Structure prediction request, 74 residues.
Amino acid sequence: MTEPTGNCPEREGLLQQWTDCSARVARLLSGQLAAMKGTASRSAGLDDQIRLARAEEVEACRSYYAHLNAHECV
Ligand SMILES: [Zn+2]
Prediction:
């Protein structure tokens, strides 16, 4: 096996999670922007979804760095 140095599957997974969360926030925000411009109907609970998605993103970010600190697998 010639794994590149620092290749940690767990870290990869956490990074992927974080990426997914960021993408979801971006998607929700663009929906909100479209609603503000009047090009899309304002969906109920969008603000709540954005708030939740942001909280998840922060949590994913924290998990990622917590893993880096605990594992030192950069
Ligand atoms: Zn690791």
Notes: Residues 9-71 form one domain. The CA atoms of residues 4 and 49 lie 38 Å apart.
